[in-house]
Amino acid sequence: MNDQLRAISNLDRVIHEPGRLMIFALLGVVKECDFLYLLHETEMNKGNLSSHLAKLEEAGYVEIEKTYRGKVPQTLLRLTRAGRKAFDDYRKGLKAAF
Amino acid sequence: MKTEFQNLMEKPKRADSYDGTGEMVFGLMALGYGLLGYVQVALPKNSIWRQGSYGKLLFFAGVLLMLGLMIGVTKVIKKRITWPRTGYVKYRNPGRKFWWWTWMVGVAIFSAVIAAGVAFLMRFDRRHDWISLVWMANQPIYVACYAYWIYRMERDHPWKWLVLLFMALGLLAIALIAPAGLVGLGQLMLLFVGIVWFGSGGATLCLFIRHNQPPALEAE
What we know:
The complex is a heterodimer. By secondary structure, chain A is α+β, with helices and mostly antiparallel strands. Chain A has a single domain, classed as Arc Repressor Mutant, subunit A (Orthogonal Bundle). Chain A has 6 helices and 3 strands, in the order αααβααββα. Chain A has helices spanning 3-9, 13-16, 18-27, 35-42, 46-58, 81-97, and strands at 30-34, 62-69, 72-79. Chain A is elongated and about 55 Å long. By secondary structure, chain B is mainly alpha-helical. Chain B has one domain. The longest helix of chain B is centred in the first third of the chain and has 35 residues, at 52-86.
């Protein structure tokens, strides 16, 4: 197997899914944001976004914090250190592959 | 040419200007400095605004009030209008080092551009004093900065280019029709810039409210 193919096969599949990649692209450049912000920017539906976030939380890439803004519930989201490293590695891997 | 992915990564940066607060803040700043500067040069010499330390004290009180207004207006709009509609986002510290030499080079280039502008204007305009000409030479820089802002931050609002055109033509008209030796010409120009920016930001805010309704509350 040549280097390019190996780089493609080594890509992190948790990040590689288009919906989750969008989430990473947005969370990667901010400190934190809430669920509504991601919903607005990714234009996914709530169910889809929730299931992607659950997978990312399970992988240890995203930290989810349930809180309140006044009396309104708010879900805060941020990339963990492992998530940032995985995203950097993914981008390097993708560059190497192409 | 940027990829869709790079555009997506730049979205959070642009999200800060969805609601027009950035323009409104710059507009308030220009209005504040324009107004404070104008009263300091245009009012009679025996006015309290022009009496040594009282005048300076009033000027700094005005600046503090303006800063308070800028911060307060932004916070209220973000908390009550923007975040409930399009979500809350907190930006990362870019972590870049501040280089003094870059700052110094920038100031030197800026001064050279202004000096060249004043020298150019002096050849054609003999009606105004050099202070007014310095203010006039500043105007293309405001226009250029606003054009850059629109290009980077306002891609969803192409009508802003018309606002830019209006601003540039308005400034040109003020420079051309101002009577010779008008006191506070520069400050009047700054007031005009402030009104345009504040108005444009206000229009963006109205459009934002019209096109974005807060979602119904349910589980996330």
